[in-house]
Amino acid sequence: MKCPCPKCDATIEISEQKISANANSQNCPDCKDKYWFRQEKFMLRGYRKQGRLYCCDCGGELGSDLLCLSCGSLCPDYCVVQSPRFVSHKQQKAGYRFSLPQRSKSTAKATPTAKAAQPQTSKSWLVYPVLAVLALVLVGGLSKVYLDHKAHQEYAKNFIVALYGVKSGTDLNLGLIDNISSTWQQNLGAGGIAPRPSQKDLDKLTVVKKRISQAMETLNESPEKFVEARTQLIRLHGVYEQIYALNISNPDSLDEYTVSVDKLKASFSKAADELKGAMPEELSNELKASVAKYTNLSFLVKG
Fold first, then answer.
1. Average pLDDT value for residue range 42-56
2. Alpha helix (H) residue ranges in the chain
3. If you average pLDDT over residues 128-151, what whole number do you get?
4. Topology annotation, domain 144-300
5. Does 219 have pLDDT greater than 70?
6. First to last CA, the chain
7. What pLDDT does residue 189 have?
8. 238-243 contacts, C-beta under 8 A, 24 or more apart
9. Distance CA 268, CA 243 (A)
10. Which of 54, 211, 295, 297 is most buried, most CB within 10 Å of its CB?
11. Where are the domains positioned within the chain?
């Protein structure tokens, strides 16, 4: 992880292997001053009064947001870098000592005024359980938000992989169909029958179909915000299945075969447009970020 020196702002580098909950130190290569660093849980950010904070997931500097603006991690643990040495946990707790009031001989005979004040002292202890409950509620709420965000990120990645598989399988089938149509057209004058894909091609289609089915199965448990997009992807996958079935069929005539191909191509384009319109923003962003890797999906990003 690279960051500025807390004293002179020169670029310093901290090995990720050295970042832990235990405080460690290094010397700046420029100013030679010692600086300290350690990893802390996200929940401790509210107590931070000094030191720069850096995301443990990507190393980006953190602001006041709940998420890292560099990598998008929600509620990330952080690394704090500062000049002074960290105060030990024992020292931090030294100023917060609580003790129950003790009864002594001198206070055994309390005045009426002192006795009247005693209930107020005992009631003040109710504050601590209430604060503890509120803290648990806050931690639970943030944890749920964090877990939901991570689950949505993972689902979006799986969705794009499944979409890529459906589009790739469709392109593969249509390529073979175009070859069959072309060969059949050339053999019409000689009274040739409909050409058939080779066994090698059929085996390849079968393997691809199986992998697409596996990718689709990862989307079975869909978060609510992705339900409509998943429904549209299932429809798109259904068109792919029809194109696959046509490829392994025995068509009666070239004209009928050509009409079926054109209808399926139109159905695929329509289903793709409906899918594009049903994508939530989080899924659209994942698609745009993945186009460089899955180039055949660029048609869903354009226009």
1. 75
2. 89-94, 105-108, 112-124, 127-187, 199-217, 227-247, 254-278, 281-290
3. 65
4. Four Helix Bundle (Hemerythrin (Met), subunit A) (1.20.120)
5. yes
6. 39
7. 60
8. 238/271, 239/170, 239/264, 239/267, 239/268, 239/271, 240/166, 240/169, 240/170, 240/173, 240/212, 240/268, 242/267, 243/170, 243/173, 243/174, 243/177, 243/268
9. 9
10. 54
11. 2-85, 144-300
